[in-house]
Every structure is written in C-alpha cells, then in structure tokens.
Amino acid sequence: MTDEDTLDCVVAGGGPAGMVLGYLLARAGLRVTVLEKHADFLRDFRGDTIHPSTLTLLRELGLVEDFLRLPVNRVTTLDAVVDGTRVTVADFGALPGPDAVLVLAPQWDLLDFLARRAGRLPGFRLLMSTTVERAVVERGRVVGVEVSGPDGERTLRAALTVAADGRGSRLREVTGAPPVESGVPVDVLWFHLPKPPDAPPDTLAYVGGDGLVLTIDRGDRYQAGHIIAKGGFDALRAAGLPAFRGRLARVAPHLEGPARTLTDWSQVKLLSVQVNRLPQWHRPGFIAIGDAAHAMSPMFGVGVNYAVQDAVALANALAPVLLRLKEARNRAADDRSGATPPDRRLAERLAGELDSALAAVQRRRERPVRRMQRLQVLGHRRIARPPRGDRFAPRWVGPVLRVVTPRLRRRVAHFVGVGFLPEHPSPLLLRSAHPADGEIE
User: GO molecular-function annotation terms (predicted)?
Assistant: First the structure.
C-alpha cells in the first residue's frame, strides 16, 4: 500500500478500540491502517480489566484460547473490604456460558496480541511512532489524515477515517462541537506497590475513614490507586509522602510495608477523571469511538470494554458498505472513458449509505454509554466521593454491602461484566480473510 492508494479505513489510535476495529475490518477483506503515536504499547496505568463480554467476543473470533495463554490473572469475584469487613460485591462465576470470569491483563499484552493476529491479515497495517496531525477535509467530507512519523510527513487517504485515539484526540474537533462534560468530584492517583508475602485474597477496593484504595493484582505487585478530591493533589503533595503513606496504611493495613517503597512523588501518577460525551460522533467520512467519543470514568473498569463494543458495532455496520464501495471505486478507476460511469455514481450513493450507517452506529452505542455514564457520575457523587469529616463513604455503605445477596451479586456481575448492549460480530466478520490466521472459514 502506498500513500497514493485510497485505503478503506484509517484509524487514529492503537488502543483496544482501534486495534479491534482494524483487526475486524481487515478480517472482512478490507485495507485498513492503524496509526499509533508511540513506539510501543508499554504504557502504564491503563485499563487492565478484560470483562466477560470482551472474552466472549474473542471466543467468537476464535482468539480466546490463545489470549488466555498469556500471563493473565482470572478473577471470579469482586471483593471489597469496607471498614475491615470483607464483602463480595459481584460474582462473575454465576454468569452463564464459558466466559464467566474477569481477566486482569496489562493492556500492552492485549494490544501486542491483537497486533500479532491482525498482522497475519493481508489488508492490515500498523504504523507505530506515527502522529496524526490533522484531518483532510474536501468539500465537507473527511477523506483521510495528515501524519508525521519516522518517514516524515505524508497524507493517508481513506473512505472512512476513525478517531480511536482517546480523550485527547486531535480529530474529534472535526465533529464541530466540544464534548459535554459531566461533573466528577474525584481524581485517581495510580502507583505500584510490591505485594506483601502474606497478601490477603484478591481485593479490588479497601474503603475506610481515610478514603478508598484500589489494588489490582499483577502477580508480584499491585497496580494501586487512591481516590482523592478533584484538584486535591497539590494539597496532598504539600503534606508530604509520609502522610500519604500513612493514609494508605490506615485504609489497608497490609500495605504499610509496601507503601514504604514510595520514596518520590514521581512514582505517583495523577489521573484526572473525566466523564464526557461528544454531542455528535460523526460527520461525512468520519466517526469517533471509545474515549474519543465518550470519556469514561475508571469506575467499574468498563472503559476498555465499551470502547471494544463501539468497534464491533462500527465494523458490523460499515464492513458491508465499505466492501461494496471498494468494489465500485475499483471499477470506476478502471474506466478511462472520461464519462461518469454507473459504478462512479454507485460509489457516490454508497458514500451516502456509509454516512447514514455512521449515524446509526452513534444512535446504537450512545444509549448504553449514556446509561453507564449516568451511573458512574452517580457513583462518584454518592459513594466514591471525597472525604467529609472523618468519613470517606456514607455510613450505610458497609451494612448494605454486608447483606448483598447472591442474586444481587449476579446482577452486579452482569451489569459490570456484560453491560447494557454487548455486541457480537456479524457473520461477515466471522469469516476468515486469511486461512493462515487459523480462524473460522
């Protein structure tokens, strides 16, 4: 493929949404290029939870067995310790089907896995260290992107341009309206802690008078988080690291020793929590998905999975149109008569169908996103709110969680692990485009 070729799709962003979309479209027989601005996927403090809905997708695509051979941690329940009492909030093992488990895996492992599998498909290309500078717009339609990378600046033209490059996307401004922000009163501090030799069972969160501490198991260490009041990081730093380590130990006493490894504030990363949504995700020839369209809070850990569902819905809707458009454009390009042949008129009509499909994707995916974002905002304001007096959470939280019933645990597992509108690949996407990929023919 050369810069002069018109791709079927160019995707800005090599995160979960971009990689899944690129894989699915290439699997359908389309030519797609995914652009990733970093040189590798080794970036920390990213969403590491692979939920049952995403495992089911990987299973449907014939990928789950190979994925689960990676060094992942399988969790069947989500436990929390509230004021010293352990409670089970969600029971994924009670979900139906073979994917009744939550998988914790460093996101770079998932992305490397998808890149390897997509790389077997003849239509897929991944360009690392390549930054998207701006969209190319002609007569009101997005027709590609200008990029800079190891080979300098160039233009990649495509029938469809997708922004899957997160909440800092350079492309989503082409939709014409800024995202609508939902007020979130908290931020999250992320850091690593070594796991103590006498570590307790897997525990997602510890809640106590001094706050909420997250502990995500990564084998010999925790990816840990601490909820703070939005804008409160400067005051926390001013109080000093000893005070911060003390806060962690008061909420989760077994972290007192591991917390001593925090010797410099450079080890603590601030995540400014945002919940927002673009009023319109698309315009002719373009759509934003994942965090580029709707930034999710870390609450419930659903951001990666909702981004993946966006990608599946988009591939289901657009792959048939893009295939017909590709065929029509190829035939029109072969016509040298100078007239406007039927195939060229067909290509113009199919471009209109593509734009209608983009609008349909937003209508479909916006409903579950809105519902989840409302619950995230409510959760931040009612439960994970910053400390008031000597209490982080309302006093009713502990007693309520202690009497959570098995039925409610199953409902929470479904809400978190499956979501409101899980997507499944269409038969077109289940067809292998390359026998060497080892997938369903």
Answer: FAD binding; oxidoreductase activity
Positive/negative CA dihedral, 28, 17, 325, 424: positive
Read out DSSP for 291-323?
Answer: GGT----SGGG-HHHHHHHHHHHHHHHHHHHHH
Those residues with Cβ within 8 angstroms of residue 305's Cβ, 6 or more apart along the chain or in another chain: 49, 50, 51, 53, 54, 419
pLDDT band at 382 (very low <50, low <70, confident <90, very high): low
Q: How far apart are CA 218 and CA 318, in angstroms?
A: 37
Same domain flag for 174 and 239: no
CB 430 within 8 A of CB 61: yes
Where does a domain end: 219, 246, 272? 272
Whole-angstrom distance, CA of residue 399 vs CA of residue 261: 34
d(CA 9, CA 248): 47
CB neighbour burial string for 217-244, b if at least 16 within 10 angstroms, e if fewer: bbeeebbbbbbbbeebbeebeeeebeeb
Cβ atoms < 10 Å from Cβ of 336: 6
Question: In this structure, what DSSP letter does residue 197 have?
Answer: T
DSSP string, 136-165: EEETTEEEEEEEEETTEEEEEEEEEEEE-S
pLDDT of residue 44: 61
Closest CA to 380 of 368, 389, 369, 372: 372
| Residue 67 and residue 21 in one domain | yes
pTM: 0.88
Segment holding 274, helix H or strand E: none
Q: pLDDT-based confidence at 441, cuts 50/70/90?
A: very low
Last residue of some domain: 222, 255, 272? Answer: 272
Residues in the chain: 441
Alpha helices in 51-197 (DSSP H): 52-60, 64-68, 107-118
Question: Could you give the dihedral angle defined by the CA atoms of residues 87, 89, 93 and 94, in that order, rounded to the nearest 10 degrees?
Answer: 110
For 60-91, what is each residue's pLDDT tens digit? 999 999 999 998 888 888 888 888 888 888 88
**How far is residue 156's CA from residue 12's CA, in Å, rounded to a whole number?**
11
